[in-house]
Amino acid sequence: MRLILLLLLLSIGLAQKSGGGVGGRVAPRPVPAPIHPSPAPSFPLPVSPYPPVYVFPGGGGGGSVLLPALVFLGLLAVGVAMVHGLKKAAPEEETSAARLRLALLMGEELKRRLRTLAEGADTTTPEGLAALLDEAVVLLLREAPAWRWAEYETRSLGASEAFESWMAEERSLFQETFRHFQGERSEAPYTPRLEAGGRYLVVSLIALRYGAFPPPVPLSREAVKERLLAFAATTSATLLGAYLAWTPEKEGEALTEEELLALYPRLYPI
Questions:
Q1: What's the confidence (pLDDT) of residue 13?
Q2: Strands 147-155 and 95-105, how do they pair?
Q3: pTM, whole model, 2 decimals?
Q4: Contact 149, 269 (CB under 8 A)
């Protein structure tokens, strides 16, 4: 059994096609410091030259002195409670990561547009990475008739680690013929593998941000659209990282259905 699994893994490695990737990380902004407001101001009570007046049940007009004191003590108690609430440290904002994979019927025009987007992206600023997500989502929405398979997952606990591991996993599934990350570009020589039966292109979007992504659900075309729009809704103020990958990258190449399901076994038909 192990021999069969080893042979299968070797065959997958030999069948890897070209692929491209573009993206970057953003330095997290500082967590807001705890708020420590000044204590509520206190004012000395006026000192009367007359002896204090005590009110007993059934007493007379001494209540006119006691009532202002009770009001003042009530206001003081409210003020102390408000100050105590403000002194609590500001909670750290939640971060989350999400990955969406889409398998589409292969189109050379989409390949060219993905490459053009990757070449022109600003991968060193939050604004550039947010624009990269926006443009990638627009490209994929326009290709909705070609969607065939999808996969979506999110992570809140350990979101930053998930973002890094997902990027590494994507890169391991193809021969990286083009890369543009954190302002650094590279391109590797490669001879395209043109095989009969090839008809699929896989595009993966990965993002890390402040705030939650929509949860995983049984995927439908509408659910995929909603999750794509959630990527596009990430702003430069909330974005911490973005990565776009696609395979095959070279003209003429496409994945066969066997390659597709071997490399991406958790894809779901939509």
A1: 46
A2: antiparallel
A3: 0.74
A4: yes
